[in-house]
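During the second half of the funding period, the structural biology subgroup turned its attention to how the target accommodates small molecules. The most pressing case was adenosine-5'-diphosphate, which had performed well in the primary screen but for which no bound structure existed. We therefore specified the complex as follows and requested a full 3D prediction, including the ligand pose.
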Amino acid sequence: MQVLKFGGTSVNDAKAIAQVAAIAADQLKTDPNVVVVTSAMRGVTDLLINSAKAAASGDRQRYRDARSTLVTRHRDAAEVLIPDLDDLARVQELTDERIREFERLCMAVAILGELTDRGLAVISGLGERLLAPILAAAIRARGLKAEFVDAGELIVTDDNHASAAPDMDATRAATRGRLLPLLEAGVMPVVTGFVAATPSGVPTVLGRGGSDYSAAILGAALDADEIQIWTDVDGVLTADPRIVKEARTLSELTYSEAAELAYFGAKVLHPKTMLPAIDLGITISVRNTFNPGFAGTRIVAQAVNVGTVKALTVIRGLALITVAGRGMMGVPGIAARTFAAVAAQGANVLMISQASSEQSICFVLPEPDASHVVAALESAFAGEIHRRLIDRVTLEPEVVIVAVVGEGMRGTPGIAAKLFGALGEKQLNVIAVAQGSSEANISLVLAAADADAAVRYMHTAFGLAG
Ligand code: ADP
Ligand code: ASP
Ligand code: MG
């Protein structure tokens, strides 16, 4: 059993979709059970979300313009891909129906002047629902049996609509009940990524970039042998190829390395993708739709080639907040109160660092949350600030986290020295540092303007280009 997931670039137009159909057909030669999971066409999810948000603020033109883009892109692709006129007519009818739904939803949002998470989840998931029937027909056009399946029938989640969590038991039952009979009948299911539904059938989505997670959830539910993530690069690379031109494919990674890389910004995989695979030991491979002969990256429990530093990643758009004061030393509960105040603002902390002198605590969070978190801290510590136990709460905007990842760093001396040596030589200032106790990751906070230079320089310093 193989689950093949294709990302937005892989289904961007008729030519790419034809390539995807060829890869799926090819896989069927070696494995009778193939399930395909697809994203929306590239840019479509953004278009849907932006239209819905504009509608909420009274702008109706935006969704009318989006409507024509959606019609053109999907109908044009279908026309090229589906030679059977009856099949084409059926698919075009589905496309039109979905786009009418999009318009009606945006109109409702505009009338209400409000966009709820629930409404946004319905609208943002339409891209996958538009694309999957076209891809299924493109596979049928190769003489194979394939059928579009809405993941709302398979993946059962809670009602956190924008970033829903699956109920694996319910999902396993629903997925097997719906997909196994299809597979037994020799039909390839073509499933929408990203989308899911609550037990009562209300649509949800799994968070941006969540189609990778969809594939992993379905792979686990089906006890698949492999989950294949097909994208637009040659696998997981030593760094983002948009920053480092000479970045190289990592042939093998462990689940925890891949999870660290994804969490710290390697967009190639959604951070939760590894979770369903770990328990069952399902191999995840990351491959290039436009270079299908290349093996790409295999993600497994234990990698053969351990190495030390494997890859570098960047998370942008962050701010660093510091709570500092000589009077903090030895005062119990400062950290607890700090993070309680942060949590009350609903902000997500990405990294924490405290020096052993206890004179300051600093942490990194997404920039949009920063100013209200500072205000909340100033009010939480008003007494201590007044008594001069805490000198200040400071905000440093426009920072990034650069993460250095590799399980082999554990117990290997000298990595940090090399890191700081490399950055010091280039006069790149490190604002804060944290190392997880797993030692599989060292995170550095740098000024945003230094990020790309730092990544390029460290990539060379650690010999990652090979
Ligand atoms: P898809 O649409 O297939 O899901 P994404 O755009 O979500 O594709 O992810 C693939 C992109 O991730 C690549 O084009 C690449 O620019 C970016 N990327 C960032 N870091 C890495 C990395 N370490 N290895 C590979 N790709 C990376
Ligand atoms: N289409 C969704 C997004 O853009 C999910 C995905 O591509 O994985 O976020
Ligand atoms: Mg993606």
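Two results from this model are relevant to the next phase. Residues 85-112 form the longest helix (28 residues). The CA atoms of residues 271 and 354 lie 26 Å apart.
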